Amino acid sequence: MAPTPKPLDELFHDMLKDVYYAEKQILKALPKMAKAATAPELKKAFETHRTETEGQVERLSEVFELIGKAPRAKTCDAILGILEEGKAVMEDYADSPALDAGLVASAQAVEHYEMARYGTLKAWAQQLGHKDAVKLLDATLAEETRTDKALTQLGGPANTAAVAKAA
């Protein structure tokens, strides 16, 4: 006999655990990125996003409560890989004028991963009728989108500086 197919609410819960783990790993990485950044604006952006990320972890805890589950993390290999790349940039370009450009690129890889996950979770929450969860996930998705836009703006000067100093 074939196993019973897993329902969407189970997949939703699994991805919620995945992104909860990701946010907790990002919380650990952001202070290191802020410390490595050379441009004051970039340092400040990483510090600001750390505070936002703490709020995002809180919102995720609320979503878990709304679906009657305890907040639990499940190892997310994707975020570990993305953060590992960022760590390599910090090590390989520590004394390079290209460091900030690399940090911006690494941070945007994180943001794009999060935007993909929160967009999916929001759509599934709508499908499952979790109206309050939709609002919480949408608030986080909006923050991640704003952070990505801010990083794009910071990337311009970082890229220009990297090229100017290399010339």
Summarize this, please?
The protein is mostly helical. Helices cover 83% and strands 0% of the residues. α1 (8-36) runs antiparallel to α2 (40-66), α1 packs parallel to α3 (77-92) and α1 (8-36) runs antiparallel to α4.
List the helices and strands and how they pair.
Blueprint: H1 8-36, H2 40-66, H3 77-92, H4 99-128, H5 131-166
Helix pairs in contact: 1-2, 1-3, 1-4, 2-5, 3-4, 4-5
**Approximate shape:** elongated
Mean pLDDT: 94
What would you report as the Rg, rounded to the nearest angstrom?
18 Å
Percent range of helical residues = over 70%
Q: Give the strand tally.
A: 0
Q: Give the number of helices.
A: 5
Please give a handful of descriptors for the protein shown.
single chain; elongated; 83% helix; 167 residues; mainly alpha; 5 helices
Description:
- With 167 residues, the protein is mainly α.
- The protein has five helices and no strands.
- It has helices at 8-36, 40-66, 77-92, 99-128, 131-166.
- Helix 1 (8-36) packs antiparallel against helix 4 and helix 2 runs antiparallel to helix 5 (131-166).
- The model has no long low-confidence stretch (mean pLDDT 94).
